[in-house]
Specification:
Blueprint (H helix, E strand, L loop, with lengths): L5 E5 L5 H10 L5 E5 L11 H17 L4 E4 L2 H14 L5 E2 L5 H7 L4 E6 L1 H5 L1 H10 L4 E5 L4 H6 L6 H16 L4 E5 L7 H8 L4 E3 L2 H14 L12 E5 L3 H12 L5 E7 L2 E4 L1
Parallel strand pairs: 1-2, 1-3, 2-9, 3-4, 5-6, 5-7, 7-8, 9-10
Antiparallel strand pairs: 10-11
This protein binds D-glutamic acid.
């Protein structure tokens, strides 16, 4: 048993979609969330740079006594999950990979779409899932430049995001796909609009609930589950502006919560 928090991080608000599912499954666990909004978006950065951010954030979360670290970001998982496990032996990490497997297995027409960042498409996790599970399907990948920024602004409904997503999704529909992988943790916040555009004939695969189940399994296996009852404590930090993340929490999670500020100094995060 451990009442230390589960540490969760992302470049920005995307990992909140994972936090939401973890909180729904394990209400009494304490959660500690770090948004690296000074550096968002990660998706067009070199993998090496994202690896550096991920290591600095992990050191910060561990200094705050995190008992497990969730890399709630496809881009950071692709760039850094293997090296984090090597650099921090003994620390349980749960990462996230593009959900190509369930999409490929479920596709009747054997054609699937994947929305992800350029860095995710370049990373080793994507190459591995394609090699293992998508050999017999046609995979149509699309990066979505600018979409992370729209969601960071809390615009998950409305005309701007609808027009943007129609521009991405209509050509994918013309390719004849019947399954769509949300390969970036920001995108589940736009699920409703995506569903309206693609219609009922396309299965949308959101990996976040699976990540939450994996976190629960790892905690149980290691005897690290929390012992508390009632809702656990949620703490939020950002390397960007506190008010920005506070607003996003209100818009995306309907939650009022104070946000602490951190800043980068020589590759380390310190509280301001
Ligand atoms: N939420 C992210 C992901 O899952 C990061 C997107 C970005 O910062 O570009 O890939």
């Amino acid at each position: 048993m451990s009442d230390s928090p589960i540490g969760i991080f992302d470049s920005g608000v995307g990992g909140l979609s994972v936090l939401r599912d973890i909180a729904a499954l394990m209400l009494s666990e304490n959660l500690l969330y770090l948004a690296d909004q000074a550096n968002v978006p990660y998706g067009h950065r070199p993998l090496e740079e994202v690896r550096g951010f991920s290591e600095g954030i992990t050191r910060f979360l561990l200094a705050k006594k995190a008992k497990l670290v969730v890399v709630a970001c496809h881009t950071a998982s692709g760039a850094a999950l293997y090296s984090l496990r090597e650099s921090f032996p003994g620390v349980p990490f749960v990462g996230i990979e593009p959900a190509v497997k369930p999409a490929a297995l479920g596709s009747r027409v054997k054609a699937i779409g994947v929305l992800a960042t350029p860095a995710t498409f370049e990373g080793p996790l994507f190459a591995r899932v394609v090699e293992q599970f998508a050999k017999d399907v046609r995979l149509v990948g699309r990066t979505c430049p600018g979409l992370v920024e729209i969601i960071e602004a809390g615009e998950v409904n409305g005309e701007r995001i609808r027009r943007y997503l129609e521009g991405v999704l209509h050509p994918l529909l013309e390719e004849g796909i019947d399954a769509l992988v949300l390969g970036c943790t920001h995108y589940p916040f736009a699920l409703e609009t995506i569903r309206e555009i693609v219609g009922p004939g396309v299965a949308i695969v959101d990996p976040c609930p699976g990540v939450a189940r994996q976190v629960k399994r790892v905690l149980e296996e290691r005897g690290l589950s929390g012992s508390g009852e009632g809702a656990g404590e949620r703490r939020y930090f950002t390397s960007g502006a506190s008010e920005g993340l506070e607003k996003a929490l209100r818009l995306l999670l309907c939650q009022e919560a104070p946000v602490g500020r951190v800043r980068w100094l020589d590759g380390e995060l310190e509280e301001v």
